[in-house]
């Protein structure tokens, strides 16, 4: 017990108090996050639409999310992290509730795109706020803990959703909306703005002039500048490939299990394994692999995800589907915190919203392309092509990550922000470093 207690203390200690409020809001939100996981099953089983239509709706959700990622990233840098979180979370609650009420196929498709836009627009702000608050050397740990919260909520919600759906799918949409409202309430009451400010004499980025003391800054870094960051955009492209593979878990996998005669309840239990494995293993695995570089972590994580999905071609029973979920979840545990930390390292401090927005865009674009390609491939070429394709694409992404980041050291020393817009003297004051600090 002593060793376990020491490991727990080392994992959770030293992080600012505001981080834990953000962690709590994430947990609350994900405890009610039913809709995306069950949307394909809702459309094919409850509404009777085809796998291709379900894939199209999921793709439109992803398309809306792509727009939301860019808009949310820019707003997080311009108006602040906190107001961006509040507005987008409330918008997500409203559109999610409406999605459960509309019945016309065109209306379903349109509202799904709005749900994607509003829900995804909050993610760059949240990630930027965590990066603002946490010291560079603690970021992998902080993002790992936040990812842990996401999956505690996902595991509980996925297990419960199958039983709730048996009483009526509308309840999934309404409870999801309520949890998002509660998340916004936590942010409103407990979160402080973390958008960086500078001293009158301290430049905030290469080529940027000094900013008036005490004023939040926009360093002149624009989306076009982010697009010209070739290393970062290569990372975004690789993440899009891997994300397209991962999207099969919430679209094609549900349809494939349904074609084998498995029920919504069985799918919910299998999907819950993903969250359960992350809840149990995220922290110990992160501790085990912390001495390895991000290149190795992203490469190995991608391979496990690729071939976990590839094994699905052999699945036909609940047990085998569960086994494949365990394999690709191990890859997710290794990959996710390292990838989020790499993005924070590559981004200038006052442009984190835009960088996180572009990174989120890669997942949103994958949420558009992955379900669409997966659904059409399943209909036209069969399940073998879907799952073998996942193995090939994921392997290519893993190799790309390793080659791109091999030998690269964290860019923590590039941070030059010296003050942040929070109340002086609070114990949850964000850590900030000067260059070389």
In brief, what are we looking at here?
By secondary structure, the protein is mainly alpha-helical. The chain has helices at residues 2-12, 17-31, 35-46, 51-78, 81-99, 105-133, 139-167, 170-190, 223-227, 230-246, 252-259, 264-288, 294-310, 318-346, 352-380, 383-405, and strands at residues 196-197, 419-420.
Q: Major sheet, described briefly? A: 2 strands, antiparallel
Kindly estimate the percentage of residues that lie in beta strands according to DSSP: under 5%
* Overall number of strands: 2
Number of helices: 16
Describe the protein's architecture and organization.
- The protein has helices at 2-12, 17-31, 35-46, 51-78, 81-99, 105-133, 139-167, 170-190, 223-227, 230-246, 252-259, 264-288, 294-310, 318-346, 352-380, 383-405; strands spanning 196-197, 419-420.
- Mean pLDDT is 78; it is low at 199-217 and 410-437.
- It starts with a helix and ends in a 17-residue tail after the last strand.
- The chain has 437 residues and is an all-alpha fold.
- The protein contains 16 helices and two strands.
- The protein has a two-stranded antiparallel ribbon.
């Amino acid at each position: 017990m002593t060793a376990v207690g020491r490991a727990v203390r080392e994992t959770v200690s030293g992080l600012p108090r505001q981080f834990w409020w953000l962690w709590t809001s994430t947990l609350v939100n994900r405890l009610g996050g039913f809709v995306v996981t069950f949307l394909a099953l809702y459309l094919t089983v409850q509404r009777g639409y085809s796998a291709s239509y379900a894939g199209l709706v999921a793709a439109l959700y992803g398309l809306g999310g792509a727009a939301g990622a860019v808009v949310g990233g820019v707003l997080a840098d311009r108006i602040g992290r906190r107001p961006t979180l509040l507005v987008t979370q409330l918008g997500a609650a409203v559109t999610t509730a409406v999605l459960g009420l509309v019945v016309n196929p065109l209306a379903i498709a349109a509202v799904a795109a709005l749900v994607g836009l509003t829900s995804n627009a909050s993610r760059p702000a949240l990630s930027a706020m965590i990066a603002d608050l946490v010291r560079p050397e603690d970021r992998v740990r902080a993002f790992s803990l936040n990812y842990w919260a996401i999956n505690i909520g996902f595991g509980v919600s996925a297990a419960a959703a199958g039983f709730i759906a048996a009483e009526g799918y509308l309840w999934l949409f309404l409870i999801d909306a309520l949890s998002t409202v509660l998340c916004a309430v936590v942010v409103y009451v407990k979160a402080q703005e973390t958008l960086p400010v500078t001293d009158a004499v301290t430049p905030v980025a290469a080529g940027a002039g000094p900013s008036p003391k005490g004023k939040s800054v926009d360093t002149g870094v624009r989306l076009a500048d982010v697009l010209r960051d070739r290393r970062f955009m290569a990372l975004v492209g690789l993440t899009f490939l891997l994300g397209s593979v991962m999207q099969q878990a919430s679209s094609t996998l549900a349809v494939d299990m349904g074609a084998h005669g498995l029920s919504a309840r069985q799918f919910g239990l299998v999907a819950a394994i993903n969250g359960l494995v992350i809840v149990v293993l995220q922290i110990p695995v992160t501790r085990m692999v912390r001495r390895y570089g991000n290149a190795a972590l992203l490469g190995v994580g991608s391979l496990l995800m690729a071939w976990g999905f590839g094994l699905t071609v052999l699945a036909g029973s609940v047990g085998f589907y569960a086994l494949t979920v365990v394999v690709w979840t191990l890859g997710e545990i290794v990959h996710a915190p390292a990838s989020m930390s790499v993005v924070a390292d590559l981004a200038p401090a006052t442009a984190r919203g835009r960088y996180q927005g572009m990174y989120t865009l890669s997942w949103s674009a994958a949420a558009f392309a992955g379900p669409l390609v997966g659904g059409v491939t399943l209909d036209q070429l069969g399940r073998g092509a879907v799952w073998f394709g996942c193995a090939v694409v994921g392997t290519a992404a893993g190799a790309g990550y390793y080659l791109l980041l091999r030998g690269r050291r964290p860019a923590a020393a590039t941070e030059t922000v010296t003050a942040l817009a929070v109340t002086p003297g609070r114990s949850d004051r964000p850590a900030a470093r000067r260059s070389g600090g």
